[in-house]
Amino acid sequence: MSEHLGTALRLASDGLPVLPLRRGKVPFGNCPACAKNVCGGRPNMKTPGPCTCPHPCHAWAAATTDPHTLNSPQWATAWRTAAAVAYHPGGAGVTVVDLDNAVAIAWARATLPVTRTVATTRGEHWIYQGVMQSVNAVRPGVDIKSLMAYVRWLGPGTGTTAVLPAVVRALAVKEPSPAHRAPQAVTVPLRGQGGACPHRTPAYLDRGIAMAEQRITDASSAVHATVYRTFLAVLSTHGQCGCLTEAHTSRLFTAAQAKGETARHCTDAWTNAYTALGL
């Protein structure tokens, strides 16, 4: 038995759907019968679709916890030549925030709740309990991998897995088209709930606002979407307790307008962010 197959069987017994990766950290290609998805493919794990191919086809959708499949002759060649083992995070009920560099890690440490962390070659994987859509490049150096994606297995990591926070879900939300935007508000809403503020010091909030300003300032394209996603991230973290003030929103609006956004668009995006988060 190869080392990678042994790892895969152990992970599968723990409930992680696994698959082999070849050199380059990519899945094995489809077999001739499934080439170019002529078989219909496998749209998701719960509904495999018309394809019942016994080979490790269709990338992430081939991930399985079935030891008989993993040990089958059809998978044997793949395991003999495999360079790594991967798993389907959505199938395991988790979401992986893939941080690709030191800047992304610094952003996560200042913005996201502490959770189980796995070191990677260039950065870290932050793993949360819960699933969501997978989206690449939600900000520089940050990908979200959950449903319909695969992640290379690099070990169990350290720490306790936290519940998937709203701030991560907000990164995947696209700004509504103008035709579906909420009516423009005359003033910027600051509808804090008046509950106990979970932020230990004012410096935490100030650091978050400063990073949000920098994210908007650094946007080289898709400025509209960046502004909206930044507003979502700020409100998902600070919008419930009432600690945001007009001074904070003014800083964000000023950064957005310096990138060419109008005051009307800023107000519109802020209002829509409130609506999307149910605040």
Account of the 3D structure:
With 279 residues, the chain is of the alpha+beta class. 36% of the residues lie in helices and 14% in strands. It has 9 helices and 10 strands. The chain has helices at residues 3-13, 67-70, 73-81, 102-111, 166-171, 202-218, 223-238, 246-258, 263-277, and strands spanning 18-22, 26-27, 84-87, 94-99, 116-119, 124-129, 135-139, 142-145, 151-152, 162-163. Strands 4, 5, 6, 7, 8 and 10 form a 6-stranded mixed sheet that branches. A 4-stranded antiparallel sheet has the order 2-1-3-9. Strand 7 (135-139) and strand 8 (142-145) form a beta hairpin. The termini are far apart.
User: Could you tell me the mean pLDDT?
Assistant: 83
Can you count the beta strands? Answer: 10
Order of helices and strands: HEEHHEEHEEEEEEHHHHH
Q: What value does the Rg take, in angstroms?
A: 22 Å
Q: In percent terms, what proportion of residues is strand?
A: 5-15%
Helix/strand class: alpha+beta
How many H/I helical runs? 9
Task: Give the proportion of residues in helices.
Answer: 25-40%
Shape, per Cα inertia axes: elongated
Distance N to C terminus: 54 Å
Quick structural overview:
This protein has 279 residues and is of the alpha+beta class. Helix content is 36%, strand content 14%. Strands 4, 5, 6, 7, 8 and 10 form a 6-stranded mixed β-sheet that branches. A 4-stranded antiparallel β-sheet has the order 2-1-3-9.
